Amino acid sequence: MTFIASLAAAWQKNDSLLCVGLDPDPARFPAHLKGRDDAIFEFCKGIVDATADLVCSFKPQIAYFAARRAEDQLEALITHIHAQHPGIPVILDAKRGDIGSTAEQYAVESFERFKADAITVNPYMGRDSVEPYLAWPDKGVILLCRTSNPGGSDLQFLDVGGGEKLFERVARLVATEWNTTGQCALVVGATFPAEIARVREITGTLPLLVPGIGAQGGDIEATVKAGKTLGGTGLMINSSRAILYAGQGEDYADAARRAALETRDAINRYR
Questions:
Q1: Contacts of 70 by beta carbon, 8 Å cutoff, 6+ apart
Q2: Which of 267, 180, 178, 189 has the alpha carbon at shortest distance from 228?
Q3: Which one is catalytic: 13, 95, 139, 225?
Q4: Which helix (H) or strand (E) holds 208?
């Protein structure tokens, strides 16, 4: 199945718009996992197995693995998700952005080495830097549009002509000219619900990956009401730390499940 088809199926099967971000920080792991060579894999595996029926996607952040030379554990984790929880798409959060020949290698890294179903991409260098990912027509390409960090406004809110903001231009280009495979999506932060609504207005039913709830303080009700499609889907609302570190003991996975269930249900109240 394509990324978009898998995502749509997961929205329905799990009745969920929740994406769980996998940002493993060994300093915050339960004591029984600390010091293990495979601690990152085991920690994330516990989270995945406890929450897979509550989510529409998983989003491992590559920096948390690469910084600790744990890319092999990332490969193993994605293999585990595909084998044990088929149909749940995996988004590699890498925010790549470079010229065509380099982007081709990043695409191979994401889709062949790690076997991710989608990747996050920075659109700043333009369409030709995105096209190598679109050469994989079944894979998702999720482009940064209106990010959740305060400094995003430094550039994303600039007027690029006729009153159009840069993030609006990105949304329009992706939804029309760049989405040649029908596999594109956009990142729009939950900390800016008015901008979520504007992006939804511009892009129609294009899926939106929405970070910023939980630890970053984004409002769930405002996020869902601003970004959902008429069918009550269209969103991958990401929560990472609030779920990963809901518990600190050997029962951390059970605590993560409770937090994920609470978040999933809170989202669904406003669909």
A1: 40, 41
A2: 267
A3: 95
A4: strand 208-210
Provide mean pLDDT across the span 194-200: 96
Q: How far apart are CA 21 and CA 76, in angstroms?
A: 16
Q: Using one digit for the tens of pLDDT, what is the confidence trace for 49-71?
A: 999 999 999 999 999 999 999 99
CA distance 270 to 69: 41
Give the tokens for residue 131: 């096209």
Cβ neighbours of 115 (radius 10 Å): 14
- 177's tokens: 């000219």
| Statement: the pTM of the whole predicted model exceeds 0.90 | yes
Q: What's the CA gap between 189 and 196, in Å, rounded?
A: 7
Whether 95 sits among the annotated catalytic residues: the reply is yes
Give the whole-angstrom CA distance, residue 32 versus residue 122.
38
Structure tokens that stand for 188 in this block: 């729009």
Cα dihedral 122, 123, 125, 130 in deg (nearest 10) = 100
Mean local confidence (pLDDT), 168-189? 96
| C-alpha span between 236 and 209 (Å, rounded) | 5
Rg of the Cα trace of the chain? 18
Cβ count within 10 A of residue 88: 26
Cβ-based neighbours of 129, under 8 Å, separated by 6 or more = 97, 98, 99, 100, 103, 121, 123
- For 70-117, the DSSP string reads -HHHHHHHHHHHHHHSTT--BEEEEEE---HHHHHHHHHIIIIIS--S
Separation between Cα atoms, residue 244 and residue 142, nearest integer Å? 23
Distances (CA, A) of 249 to 34, 50, 64, 243: 12, 15, 21, 14
Q: How far apart are CA 90 and CA 116, in angstroms?
A: 5
